[in-house]
Design the sequence.
C-alpha cells in the first residue's frame, strides 16, 4: 500500500487564500481528487484542500461548457452534453480510465494540472480546443499550458470547451482495460481536422503539421490519409519505456491514426 505523509491539512476558504498558501510555503501542495497524487508525492508539508471553493459544477452557455476544476471525471462522463461532443470523444476518453471508483474520485482539475504522460483525456481536451481559467494566470489554452516548462503555482478554477457536433475518434491501446495507455489517439473533424497523440510515452500533444496538411486538401481519400500518417510519424516522436518499445508505438500510431481518419471522414 502507498502512503503519503501530510504534516498539515488546510481547507482553503477561497481561491485567493489557496493561492497565497501555495506560494508562501515551498513544501505546500494542492489536492483536488487525489487519485494520482500518491503516485508522485511521498511527503507534503501543507496540503491545501479546495473542497470549500464551490468548483464542482458543469454550466452550459450558448457556445461553451464551463466545468469547475473539482468536478469528478465520472460526473463529466455521464453528462449528456459532454456525451454529444464530437461523437462523444471526451466521454469515451474518460470511460477508458481505470474503473468507476477511480473516476468518482479523480477530478478534471487534478487530471489537467498533473500533466501526466499516461493521461487518456489530455489528447481529447486538446482536440476540443479546451481553455483553462486560473486564479492568477487567468485564461490560457490547454496547448500553451502543456508547453510551459513548469506547472505554474496557481489555482485552476475551471475549464471551458466549445460545443461542437462534428465527428470524433478516440482510441486507447493498453494491455488491459485497467492499465495505463501504451498510446492514445484523439481526432476531431468539424470545419477542420485536429489530431492529438498521447502516452508516447510523453505528454499528449497536437499533430499540427499533420492537421494542416489535411486541412489544405480539397478531397480526403485513402492516398491523402496515407500521406498524412507519414507526416505524423515524422512530426510526433515516440520512444521506449517499460510498457512498450519505440518500434511498437510507431506501428500503433500508423494503424490507429489511419483507422481514426477513415472513421471521421465517413
Sequence:
Amino acid at each position: 500500500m502507498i502512503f503519503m505523509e501530510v504534516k498539515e491539512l488546510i481547507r482553503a476558504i477561497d481561491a485567493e487564500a489557496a493561492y497565497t498558501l501555495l506560494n508562501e510555503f515551498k513544501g505546500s501542495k494542492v489536492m483536488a481528487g487525489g487519485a494520482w497524487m500518491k503516485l508522485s508525492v511521498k511527503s507534503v508539508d501543507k496540503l491545501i484542500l479546495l473542497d470549500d471553493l464551490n468548483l464542482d459544477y458543469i454550466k452550459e452557455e450558448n457556445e461553451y461548457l464551463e466545468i469547475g476544476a473539482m468536478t469528478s471525471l465520472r460526473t463529466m462522463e455521464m453528462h449528456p452534453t459532454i456525451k454529444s461532443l464530437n461523437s462523444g470523444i471526451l466521454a469515451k476518453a474518460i470511460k477508458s480510465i481505470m474503473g468507476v471508483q477511480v473516476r468518482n474520485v479523480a477530478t478534471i482539475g487534478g487530471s489537467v494540472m498533473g500533466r501526466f504522460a499516461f493521461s487518456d483525456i489530455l489528447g481529447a481536451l486538446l482536440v476540443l480546443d479546451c481553455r483553462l481559467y486560473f486564479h492568477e494566470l487567468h485564461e490560457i489554452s490547454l496547448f500553451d499550458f502543456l508547453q510551459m516548462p513548469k506547472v505554474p503555482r496557481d489555482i485552476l478554477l475551471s475549464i471551458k470547451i466549445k460545443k461542437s457536433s462534428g465527428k470524433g475518434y478516440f482510441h486507447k491501446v493498453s494491455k488491459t482495460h485497467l492499465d495505463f495507455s501504451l498510446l492514445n489517439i484523439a481526432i476531431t473533424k468539424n470545419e477542420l481536422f485536429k489530431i492529438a497523440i498521447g502516452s508516447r510515452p510523453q505528454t499528449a500533444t497536437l499533430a499540427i503539421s499533420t492537421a494542416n496538411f489535411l486541412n489544405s486538401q480539397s478531397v480526403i481519400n485513402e492516398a491523402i490519409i496515407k500521406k498524412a500518417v507519414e507526416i505524423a510519424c515524422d512530426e510526433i516522436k515516440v520512444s521506449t519505456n517499460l510498457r512498450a518499445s519505440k518500434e511498437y508505438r510507431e506501428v500503433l500510431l500508423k494503424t490507429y491514426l489511419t483507422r481514426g481518419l477513415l472513421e471521421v471522414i465517413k
Residues 113 and 151 are 7 Å apart (CA to CA).
